[in-house]
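Sequence dictates fold. Next comes a concrete instance:
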Amino acid sequence: MRDMTKCEFHDELREKCPICARAATIGTLTDDNMKLRYMLWLRHDAQHAGVLYGDDGEMQCAACGIDFRRFSVKEIEARFTAIGIERLARAELDKPARAVIVHVTSSAGMWLMKRKPPLIFHGQWATPGGHIEPGETALQAAVREIKEEMAITADPERFIPFGPPSHHVRPNGTRAVLEYFLLHLRDHEPPMCTEPEKHTPWECFDHRIPPRPVTPGTEIAIGRWLTWGQPQ
C-alpha cells in the first residue's frame, strides 16, 4: 500500500479549498473514504470542479507533482482505482449541494455586488452567498455568510426569504439547490472586503442597471427583484 500521506491527496492539500475556504466535512481521511472526499470536493463549485489547489495556489500536488488541472469524473475514478481505492458512496454524491444567495442593498437602496477572479466563474459579478454547511439551516448560512464576507453581524429576522429555491445541474453533472434572501443594510453598516483574495471590494449598482455578466444564482435574484420589487 502506498503511503497516502505522500501522494497527491496528502493532508496539506486536502484540508480545505483556499478558493472557496470551505472546510472539509467528512473528517479524518482513510483509504476507504478518500475517493468520496475528493468527489465531494469536485461538486462544491462548478467552475473549479476537478481542480485540486494547494495552499500556494498551484494546481498540483507538491509531494508528487501530479497535475490536476481538469480531469473528468471517469478519469478521476480511474486514478483512484489505480491507487487501490474501490468504494464510492454514490448515494452521498447524488445529494444536491445546498447554498444560499443573499441579495444585499445599501442604506441608499443600491445593490452590493462583488466580482470574482477569472479563475472562478470567469470574473462574473455576484451577490454574497455560499454553501449551507452540515447542520445549518438556510437562514443560519445566510447570517454566517454575511458575517464572513462583509464583517456585518445582522440579526436573523432581518433576512427576508425571496422566492422559492432554484434547482440547477452543474457542468460536471452534480446538482445544486439555491435558497434566496434579501438584506437591507443600515447607515452604520459599511460592508468590508474580508476576502480580497477571492473577490473585488463591494461595489454599489443601480438596480435598473446591474453589472454583467453575473453568476447564475445572482441572475435569478436580479430577475426576482426586477419582477417583484422589494418586499414591504
Q: What stands out?
A: The two ends are 62 Å apart (CA to CA). The longest strand covers residues 175-184. The beta strands are 16-17, 22-23, 97-105, 111-115, 125-126, 129-131, 160-161, 166-169, 175-184, 203-205.
